[in-house]
């Protein structure tokens, strides 16, 4: 087929490369050629100018004299690229379309409008009435249920307002996450707890080198000796009990073979005495306070306890009378 091309520039049509919908390309080409020429031979020759790549290679492989009209060329073109056509969307597919849980209204309306345009013969009333059921439950769907738009133009205007509201809400949420409000009570409480957790642990080392061997468990002794006192740690109780024993109390609970009388706490520790008490000492002497302790030793702090305290007046050599409180 021979044709004389008009003496004017050819129309600038978006070129088809074989990957898009052939029907869309044919419509665009025919619309542009309507202002250029109505001649079939010219359309057939100009059609190659709208192709590129693999599609242009296909055009040049057509057998000679196989194209007798533009209708024949379009039929051959559609068959060659029929697999690129969009599948038609049915009305049931539009009704079953659903907005995702985390999908924005803007993204869903893009999908909904695209699907609605691909339904052949879909009425505006059907597209409008189907939208509320496709939206996720919330303010937007309830507003559409309450008052449906009358036209597609009203629907688009109404949805544009809802999209602006959603965009503003998302923007404010992002600002709050990037710049949180100061003075949050929960965060303040969490900081205080973290500071408390970072405090150094209390020193749990024992205060004395040796402790008296008791005839009964310490719990029984504490019931009598530490009435009204609060028990914090086992080591503290042992130290308090040792203080009472060293000032002469609770001797009835101390074993006779305990050779540790007179030892001071570690902080004021002196050289240990080598003399050991004989096993034949009497019970009364073992209960009495030791005579070899120095008078210069610091006084133990007062304790509000109940017990027996023996005192000696007149010194070691005076031989004075003793009193009991």
From TrEMBL:
InterPro entries: Retrotrans_gag_dom. Residues 1-20, 173-208, 255-325 are annotated as: Disordered. Residues 46-129 form the Retrotransposon gag domain. It comes from the Eukaryota. Residues 173-196, 270-287, 297-309 have a biased composition (Basic and acidic residues). Pfam families: Retrotrans_gag (PF03732). Residues 315-325 have a biased composition (Gly residues). PANTHER family: AMINOTRANSFERASE-LIKE PLANT MOBILE DOMAIN-CONTAINING PROTEIN, CCHC-TYPE DOMAIN-CONTAINING PROTEIN. This is Uncharacterized protein LOC106754660. It comes from Vigna radiata var. radiata (Mung bean). The lineage of its organism: Eukaryota, Viridiplantae, Streptophyta, Embryophyta, Tracheophyta. The gene is LOC106754660.
């Amino acid at each position: 087929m021979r044709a004389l091309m008009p003496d004017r520039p050819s129309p600038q049509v978006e070129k088809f490369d074989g990957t898009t919908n052939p029907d869309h390309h044919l419509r665009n080409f025919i619309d542009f050629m309507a202002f250029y020429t109505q001649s079939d031979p010219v359309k057939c020759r100009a059609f190659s100018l709208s192709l590129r790549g693999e599609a242009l290679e296909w055009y040049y492989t057509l057998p000679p004299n196989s194209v007798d009209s533009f209708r024949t060329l379009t039929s051959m073109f559609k068959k060659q690229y029929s697999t690129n056509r969009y599948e038609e969307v049915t009305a049931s597919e539009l009704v079953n379309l659903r907005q995702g849980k985390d999908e924005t209204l803007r993204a869903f309306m893009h999908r909904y409008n695209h699907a609605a345009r691909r339904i052949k013969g879909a009425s505006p009333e059907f597209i409008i009435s189907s939208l509320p059921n496709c939206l996720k439950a919330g303010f937007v769907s309830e507003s559409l249920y309450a008052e449906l738009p009358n036209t597609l133009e009203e629907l688009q205007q109404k949805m544009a307002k809802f999209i602006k509201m959603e965009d503003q809400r998302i923007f404010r949420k992002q600002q709050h996450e990037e710049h949180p409000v100061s003075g949050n009570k929960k965060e303040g409480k969490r900081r205080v707890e973290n500071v408390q957790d970072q405090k150094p642990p209390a020193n749990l080392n024992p205060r004395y080198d040796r402790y008296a061997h008791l005839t009964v468990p310490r719990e029984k002794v504490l019931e009598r000796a530490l009435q009204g006192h609060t028990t914090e740690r086992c080591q503290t109780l042992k130290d308090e009990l040792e203080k009472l024993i060293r000032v002469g109390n609770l001797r009835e609970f101390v074993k006779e073979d305990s050779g540790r009388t007179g030892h001071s706490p570690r902080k004021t520790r002196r050289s240990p005495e080598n003399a050991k008490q004989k096993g034949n000492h009497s019970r009364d002497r073992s209960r009495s306070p030791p005579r070899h302790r120095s008078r210069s030793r610091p006084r133990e702090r007062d304790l509000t306890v109940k017990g027996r305290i023996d005192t000696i007046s007149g010194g070691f050599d005076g031989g004075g009378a003793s009193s009991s409180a």
